[in-house]
Amino acid sequence: MSEFLLVHEPGFRLAAFLGVLVAMMVWELAAPRRRREIPRLIRWTNNLALVALDTAVLRLSFPVLAVGLAGMAEAKGWGLFNVIEVPRWFAFVGAILILDLAIYLQHVMFHAVPGLWRLHRMHHADLDFDATTGLRFHPIEILLSMAIKLAVVGAIGAPAIAVLAFEVILNAASLFNHSNITLRPGLDRVLRLVLVTPDMHRVHHSVDPRETNSNFGFSVPWWDRLLGTYVAQPAKGHDRMEIGIEQFRTPRDLWLDRMLIQPLRGPASGGALDPRTYRR
Ligand SMILES: [Zn+2]
Ligand SMILES: [Zn+2]
Question: For 139-148, how does the pLDDT look when each residue is reduced to its tens digit (9 = 90+)?
């Protein structure tokens, strides 16, 4: 089974991606959480065009991606889990958790270092919050993120099937936790024990920098709880909170060409280490 999945990796991942994306879009239509401010056409076309561009840039830039490198490491005996004797399930679960922690720490770093915040704030500049927001990352952030992932995969000798599972889970989790859906408060509370819910991640997209610089997790909520970056709810409530960042607030800023040059525009204010961020 795992052999089959690894051989058909691109097709399998594309099917999982499209399946979850369409499911979330239907769910958003059926039970929306907030009223949309911007017409879907502008945001969906530009956000989806960005994903296509990101995917092309990624495939052309790296000779091998995370799952491929994990396969090579397994064959050649590189990395921690390929050197020590551990049960397969332990390496599988361990690799997924270590990769998820690495992504959390990377996310904190992209908020803290001003030059990296310039790249990552594009994700935050979306003026509405729905499943397609979860796909909105600058191509250079995508490349840096893959370089970090490759380093972690190589160092820990993650099993290829674990890396594939991690990539699919991360992608599905991102589509889910950015979606504009209503979950009953009781259900949200239970889900939040194991999963980042849309209400939890929406706090991270608040225009208030104290809230922007919280809830960095993408899949599991444990790193935020454990490391002190967890904020349960937005101060103004989910209906009244403002989405986005102060800097880019016109519909024209949502177009692909503007998104790509955003890192070069204006000061790098609003990041976690900017002393002006919390002075109000
Ligand atoms: Zn962020
Ligand atoms: Zn986000």
Answer: 999 999 999 9
Are the beta carbons of 271 and 112 closer than 8 angstroms? yes
Which amino acid is present at 166? F
DSSP string, 60-123: HH-SS-HHHHHHHHHHHT-SHHHHS---HHHHHHHHHHHHHHHHHHHHHHHHHSHHHHHHHHHH
Give the separation between CA 49 and CA 244, rounded to whole angstroms: 20
Contact 171, 219 (CB under 8 A): no
206: nearest Cα among 28, 34, 30, 23: 34
Contact 132, 40 (CB under 8 A): no
CB 157 within 8 A of CB 81: yes
Question: Is residue 261 a contact partner of residue 268, using CB atoms and an 8 Å limit?
Answer: no
Mean pLDDT of 216-229: 97
Which ligand is nearest the CA of 214, by number? 1
Alpha helices in 125-159 (DSSP H): 139-156
What is the distance in A from the centroid of ligand 2 to the CA of 170? 12
Ligand 1 centroid, distance to 216 Cα (angstroms): 6
C-alpha 99: how far from chain center: 13
pTM beyond 0.90: yes
* Rg of the chain on CA atoms, in Å: 19
CA of 120 to the centre of ligand 1 (A): 6
Mean pLDDT of 226-242: 96
Q: Name the residue type at position 117.
A: W
